[in-house]
Amino acid sequence: MSDDLxxxxxxxxxxxxxxxxxxxxxxxxxxxxxxxxxxxxxxxxQQNPDGSRYKPRKPKAxxxxxxxxxxxxRIKRQKMFAKLRTSRYMQVEATGEGLAIGFAGRVARIxxxxxxxxLAPVAPKGPMALYPARVLLGFSDADRELIRDRLLxxxxxxx
Length: 159
Known about the structure:
By secondary structure, the chain is mainly alpha-helical. The protein contains 5 helices and 4 strands.
């Protein structure tokens, strides 16, 4: 993924050099907003950047409690990362030098665990579990095209 990021960065930096600093910031802000929307829709569709589906949640099995995820209804239909993909937590930052899309606050830890597939406690002071890697932030082919189109739009539009 870092090679893809470097290739996009090299290509975009030559195009952005043609703009004024204010134009660069505006172009990067537009690209970052569109990229965030793309990431949010991909997370809502429960897909990795390569198009594969996220691994589903494991069924919650505890003695003496109700199996809420096994029941038909609202909880079963609820998708993973519903709050995590909102603009409140998935934030963008654009400056003249570059753009950044990431998670803010305490949810950044949750996002990192799922992005990398790490070992983490299921609940505070609870048992540890190895979470499968579910790539929340990443470049798909459509994202690369989106970046290209938005940057070209700004280059053509600028005086």
